[in-house]
Write a structure and sequence with these properties.
The chain is α/β, with parallel strands linked by helices and 354 residues long. It contains 13 helices and 16 strands. The chain has 2 domains: 157 residues, NAD(P)-binding Rossmann-like Domain (Rossmann fold, 3-Layer(aba) Sandwich); 188 residues, Dihydrodipicolinate Reductase, domain 2. 43% of the residues lie in helices and 24% in strands. The strands form 3 sheets. Strands 3-2-1-4-5-6-15 form a 7-stranded parallel beta sheet, with helices on both faces. Strands 10-11-12-7-13-14-16 form a 7-stranded mixed beta sheet. A two-stranded antiparallel ribbon has the order 8-9. The radius of gyration is 20 Å and the shape is globular. The termini are far apart.
Length: 354
């Protein structure tokens, strides 16, 4: 493992956990970011090298990427940070992985598929909990019935707390409204519409369509033309239909959103642990249907979301070094539909209907 040179850019909550998992598994990645104040204590604690480089410094970023054969980008929100690192990775012919779950990021990276294949490198967004937790499950469910035409995906994340980057990303996602894929095309749907109740192993929950990266990744992995991705909410569907459009209107105001983002970042500097939910597992659900009325449902049980992200990311790094894939790929395209099953605490079970 020591001979594999790679770097982690961004050492917030997620990046720090990835670094810890990397060291636990015998790796010594280079840590990088824009703040020496954040980098130094983590790097010294783990015995790792570190470098301060701002993403706006094209020359510095090029020199940084040259020090590794693979980049793990963990600095969100990725809609604002991923492009410079993708460009640097392409220019220096280095593999690129990130832990994003944002539709615009997936679409932007997809445009570089030909270039990545030509240069013999892989660009794989979504190797953390977002996408990896559902991508293989969706591919598995869709493969169990003939010519699946509809795919529903729901995710319930259990986490001990949240990162500033994740919270800012959610805020931006709310401002973009609801999305779904119909007949192969992404379409906008009213935020808060399409909600229903789904019985999870720990109890019934409201699920609502949200603009997850799954709408892009699951389509690439399965080819199913009609996809809806849901998140869980603690309010009834009828309340969501009324409340969420108002929330979207508020956070769509750039001034208000900037103020909220600043509060999120300030709060993250003195994090307050949230109370653990009654359940201590995350869950993913995928349901595939075809025009003949066949239905196949699959569930996946997982542990805490950030722990999953850390282990999934390091395992993804190991797989890229082992397989040397190229092109723009989803996690299941790069590593197989069962990749998540190798992560600690992950279980899959299924049922057929129709």
């Amino acid at each position: 493992m020591k001979k594999n040179r790679w770097l982690i850019y961004g050492v917030g909550k997620t990046g720090s956990l990835i670094a810890q998992e990397a060291v636990r598994r015998g790796h010594f990645p280079l840590l990088a970011g824009r703040s020496a104040e954040r980098l130094k204590p983590i790097a010294e604690q783990l015995g790792l090298e570190w470098a301060v480089v701002d993403l706006s410094n094209e020359a510095g970023l090029s020199l940084l990427v040259d020090r590794a054969d693979l980049v793990v980008h963990a600095a969100g929100p990725f809609s604002l940070t991923s492009l410079p690192m993708v460009q640097a990775s392409l220019a220096r012919k280095k593999h690129y992985l990130d832990v994003s779950n944002e539709i615009p990021v997936f679409q932007s990276i997809r445009r570089h598929d030909g270039e990545a294949r030509q240069r013999g490198i892989a660009l794989i967004p979504g190797v953390g909990f977002g996408v990896t937790a559902t991508d293989g499950l969706a591919q598995y469910a869709a493969s169990q019935i003939h010519h699946a035409q509809e795919l529903e995906i729901a995710i319930h994340i259990y986490s001990r707390d949240s990162s500033a980057g994740a919270d800012v990303t959610r805020l931006e996602a709310l401002s973009r409204g609801g999305w779904a894929r119909r007949n192969g095309t992404l379409i906008q749907v009213p935020l808060g519409s399409g909600g229903k109740r789904l019985k999870f192993p720990f109890g019934e929950q409201t699920i609502l369509p949200i603009p997850l990266g799954d709408l892009e990744s699951a389509y690439r992995s399965t080819g199913v033309p009609n996809i809806t991705a849901y998140g869980t909410f603690s309010i009834p569907p009828a309340v969501a239909r009324l409340a969420l459009p108002v929330v979207q209107q508020i956070v769509s105001n750039a001034g208000i959103r900037q103020m909220l983002e600043q509060r999120i970042i300030k709060r993250a500097q003195s994090p307050v642990k949230t109370k653990a939910a009654q359940e201590s597992h995350s869950y993913a659900w995928a349901c595939a249907r075809n025009n003949r009325g066949d239905v196949f449902e699959a569930w996946q049980e997982m542990g805490e979301g950030y722990d999953f992200t850390a282990e999934a990311t390091v395992r993804a790094v190991e797989e890229v070094f082992r397989k040397q894939p190229s092109g723009v790929l989803t996690p299941s395209q790069a590593f197989g539909a069962d990749f998540a099953l190798g992560i600690n605490g992950v279980k899959r079970y299924a049922s057929t209907k129709g």
